[in-house]
Design a protein that fits this description.
The protein has 244 residues and is an alpha/beta fold. The protein has a single domain, classed as Rossmann fold (3-Layer(aba) Sandwich). It contains 11 helices and 11 strands. The strands form 2 sheets. Strands 2-1-3-4-11-10-9-6-7 form a 9-stranded mixed beta sheet, sandwiched between helices.
């Protein structure tokens, strides 16, 4: 008999300006969630309207992905509708996951603050440390107190919304992960949908924005830093959101 995850339908909300990255991000979520491609539907808000509540409600899980060039701090045409959808998903206790840009947008939609701070930017693979709350949170169960994670951001959530619990931090940037207390609503600043090979693809595409030099990319090819801990987090989220 199929498990709840095998029967699940996932909605990925994207804000990708390039078709190749839009497709790559979809593939990455399928890979890290360990689901079939036909289980994932995607909506790119640069081409399509924000899903209505009825449309989003047809899915078991909603995820909001990253962004190459857009900033949460900017006023986008979809901001109001996406904020309303995030609020309704939270109020209805529906599973919601935000990755990087999505993490920031969820934090802001729920009353937190996101700012651009190039002094806190993180590009490549960096160490993340769990807070005491993170070490006790089921999504990080069994992970070591610190681990490597893939990153690429200039903005960060400087203040979490009311009811949010900080689960992870880094030396460079706080609020690497949070959960809304009592709900299956998570945000992760790092890219848990990217393994090392996918990180190299993404950084190569966005080299003109995030400025990793050629030596860095060559070193990444020769000596990739594995991230086994973060590689399993999206699947773990689904296991918690859709228990057997």
């Amino acid at each position: 008999m199929p498990t709840p995850i095998e029967n699940a339908r996932l909605l990925l909300i994207q804000v990708r300006e390039r078709e190749d990255v839009e497709k790559q991000e979809q593939d990455c979520f399928v890979e890290r969630c360990r689901i079939r491609k036909d289980q994932l539907d995607a909506v790119n808000l640069l081409n399509d309207p924000v899903p209505t509540w009825d449309q989003a409600g047809a899915f078991d899980v909603v995820m909001i992905g990253g962004a190459g060039v857009l900033s949460v701090t900017q006023n986008h045409p979809f901001n109001e509708a996406l904020t309303e959808l995030v609020l309704r998903l939270c109020e209805a206790d529906r599973p919601l996951f935000g990755a990087c840009w999505g993490h920031q947008f969820v934090a802001q939609a729920l009353g937190g603050t996101v700012i651009t701070d190039h002094d806190r930017r993180e590009i490549g693979t960096n160490k993340v440390e769990l807070t005491p709350a993170g070490r006790d949170d089921p999504i990080f169960a069994g992970l070591p107190p610190s681990f490597q994670a893939h990153m690429g951001h200039h903005d960060y959530a400087s203040k979490l919304p009311a009811g949010a619990v900080e689960l992870a931090t880094s030396r460079q940037c706080p609020n690497q992960s949070f959960r809304i207390d009592g709900k299956m609503v998570y945000g992760m600043q790092f890219h848990c949908e990217l393994n090392t090979a996918r990180l190299l693809e993404r950084l190569t595409i966005y080299q003109h924005i995030y400025k990793p030099d050629d030596d860095y990319l060559e070193n990444l090819k020769r000596e990739p830093i594995p991230t086994p801990e973060t590689d399993g987090l999206l699947r773990r989220f689904l296991e918690l959101a859709l228990p057997t």
